[in-house]
């Protein structure tokens, strides 16, 4: 670990921070997000935009490299919604339960075979000089007709991964979820790119 990159966590979501540490902690040394840094407005049009906004804010505040991610749930029957606005699907200040209820209401009457969906995650490490490493991961699945399970967070109680055994992410132990999840795939890809020793970094300049 002595030669591993040291990155500041950009997420302000404690559930996501814990999951990132579980998945990526073997490959990098993670530092906590500065308490004095306020919320970052996620105004981007894409997951990459929002991940970059968060990483840039933390790099600017802490003066150190940071790692950020953004995730969207894309439901085919809803034209890809909630997508980049997944965290705010039920409105500003929405809780996980609010968003799940809004999603299930929007899918009322949609047959099981037409409830296909996917999670996408973009993970991004950024340095103070503007260099970045970008990675992505996704998982196909379907939206259950009701919430099931007590683990996980976000839309986990209603997302059934296609590669799984019929359980929602919220019914899985963390290790089982991490074998399949979008975030684990994106962060594993990021770890590989970071281990390449910098050859995969690209200079972006001010964004």
Write up what this structure looks like.
There is one protein chain. Helices cover 29% and strands 23% of the residues. The chain has 207 residues and is α+β, with helices and mostly antiparallel strands. It has one domain: Alpha-Beta Complex (Maf protein), CATH 3.90.950. Strands 1, 2, 3, 4, 5, 6, 7 and 8 form an eight-stranded mixed beta sheet that branches. A hairpin with a 6-residue loop joins strand 3 and strand 4 (82-83). Helix 4 crosses helix 5.
Q: Main traits of this protein?
A:
single chain, 207 residues, alpha+beta, Maf protein, eight-stranded mixed β-sheet, 8 strands, 23% strand, globular, disordered C terminus
Proportion in helices = 25-40%
Total helices: the number is 5
Return the average pLDDT rounded to an integer: 92
Distance between the termini: 31 Å
Strand content: 15-25%
Structural class of the helix and strand makeup? Answer: alpha+beta
> Strand tally, please?
8
* Rg, alpha carbons: 17 Å
Q: How many individual domains? A: 1
In the CATH scheme, the class would be Alpha Beta
Write down the CATH topology: Maf protein
What are the segments in which pLDDT stays under 50 over at least 5 consecutive residues? 199-207
Largest sheet: 8 strands, mixed
Shape: globular
Order of helices and strands: EHEHEEHEEEHHE
CATH architecture: Alpha-Beta Complex
Could you outline the blueprint of secondary structure elements for this entry?
Layout: E1 6-9, H1 14-24, E2 29-31, H2 47-62, E3 66-75, E4 82-83, H3 96-106, E5 116-126, E6 131-143, E7 159-161, H4 174-180, H5 182-195, E8 202-203
Parallel strand pairs: 1-2, 1-3
Antiparallel strand pairs: 3-4, 3-5, 5-6, 6-7, 6-8
């Amino acid at each position: 670990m002595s030669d591993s990159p040291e990155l500041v966590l950009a997420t302000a979501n404690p559930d996501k921070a814990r999951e990132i540490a579980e998945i990526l902690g073997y490959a990098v040394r993670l530092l906590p997000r500065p308490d004095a840094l306020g919320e970052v407005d996620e105004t981007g049009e894409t997951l990459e935009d929002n991940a970059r906004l968060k990483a840039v804010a933390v790099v600017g505040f802490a003066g150190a490299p940071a790692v950020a991610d953004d995730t969207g749930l894309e439901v085919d029957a809803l034209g890809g919604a909630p997508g980049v606005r997944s965290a705010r699907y039920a409105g500003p200040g929405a809780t996980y339960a609010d968003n799940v209820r809004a999603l299930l209401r929007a899918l009322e009457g949609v047959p099981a075979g037409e409830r296909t969906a996917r999670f996408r995650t973009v993970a991004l490490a950024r340095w103070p000089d503007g260099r970045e490493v970008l990675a992505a991961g996704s998982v196909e699945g379907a939206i259950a007709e009701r919430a099931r399970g007590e683990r996980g967070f976000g839309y986990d109680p209603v997302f059934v991964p296609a590669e799984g055994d019929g359980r929602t992410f919220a019914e899985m132990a963390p290790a089982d979820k991490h074998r399949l999840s979008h975030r684990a795939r994106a962060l594993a890809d990021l770890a590989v790119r970071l281990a390449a020793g910098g050859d995969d970094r690209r200079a972006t300049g001010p964004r």
